[in-house]
Specification:
The chain is 80% helix and 0% strand. By secondary structure, it is mainly alpha-helical. It has one domain.
Length: 295
């Protein structure tokens, strides 16, 4: 099996895992509140990442990396997982999964504009066009095509979903200048965030949860927060052509709608597909334009 073939295999595994995330969020939030879900998912992810690092014989790297880069660790951990998942889970708690999930995919547009401000990158007309197309898709999804009834949508939920893209983009802006090895860095993020998340959970909720809720939180922590990240990192490292791998991610939101329909029982509105096509086309156009400019 060639390196590129293995990269595609790991990318497909990642796509399949991420395709189940929206369903897992909504399903688990039927039993848990956002604070409980965040705590148990973070605990699962931290333990999983520590085990992986220990299996590699690299536990000493955690201590050294934290001593050298404790400031960026604290900031990054505050953004992801603390703030990002608190905001995202609340958005999912308020919105249908078919609405929250596509909006979350617009973070790449947010990242492009934040890179202009904080990383001094040049803006392209493609970024502006892509933003217009993507956010037109968001409006279609949020209103289900009935633009006169926009006020009847859960505007707080939509605002939170959009704000989550700002938090996630902020994390990746910071990540561009993060000197830590990626696996070590994400593990440290969860380790420093875990005590904070535990306090938040204790103050606003409590730790007693039903078994079904715990299973869902473990699934989120294991597959959304850790294993998917590891598989995606491996795919990018093995790939001889990164764009061939990264484009597979655009399959995820469409596969996700299948799980949302079959498992959660949500009726998928035609406007959801239309809006999602707007978003994906905008992102693909932006990606293609940046690749062409770089070459």
């Amino acid at each position: 099996m060639t390196s590129q073939t293995r990269a595609v295999v790991f990318a497909i595994i990642t796509v399949l895992l991420w395709s189940t995330v929206a369903t897992a969020f909504k399903f688990t939030l039927r039993s848990l509140d956002i604070f409980q879900l965040l705590f148990y998912a973070c605990l699962t992810s931290a333990l999983t990442l520590i085990i992986i690092i220990a299996a590699r014989g690299q536990l000493g790297n955690l201590t050294r990396a934290f001593k050298q880069h404790w400031k960026i660790t604290v900031i990054a951990g505050g953004l992801n997982p603390c703030l990002y998942y608190l905001v995202l889970f609340e958005a999912y708690d308020r919105l249908p999964a078919q609405v929250a999930q596509p909006i979350n995919y617009t973070w790449a547009i947010t990242f492009a504009f934040m890179s202009i401000i904080f990383l001094k990158q040049k803006i392209l007309w493609a970024d502006i066009v892509a933003a217009f197309v993507c956010y037109a898709g968001v409006v279609v999804i949020a209103t289900q095509g009935n633009f006169t009834q926009f006020a009847s949508s859960d505007l707080t939920g939509v605002a939170l979903a959009l704000f989550s893209t700002i938090v996630w983009a902020s994390y990746w802006v910071l990540n561009v200048r993060d000197p830590r090895e990626p696996l070590t860095g994400i593990c440290l993020n969860f380790m420093v965030a875990l005590p904070v998340v535990a306090v938040i959970c204790q103050v606003y909720s409590g730790f007693a949860i039903p078994l079904t809720g715990l299973a869902g939180a473990v699934y989120v922590g294991l597959f959304e927060m850790s294993i998917a990240f590891l598989c995606w990192s491996i795919a990018l490292r093995l790939s001889e052509n990164t764009s061939r791998v990264s484009n597979l991610i655009f399959l995820s939101p469409f596969l996700s709608l299948v799980f949302i329909n079959r498992i959660l029982g949500e009726t998928i509105f035609p406007t959801t597909y239309i809006g999602l096509i707007f978003i994906v086309c905008g992102l693909l156009y932006q990606q293609w334009s940046h690749t062409r400019t770089a070459s």
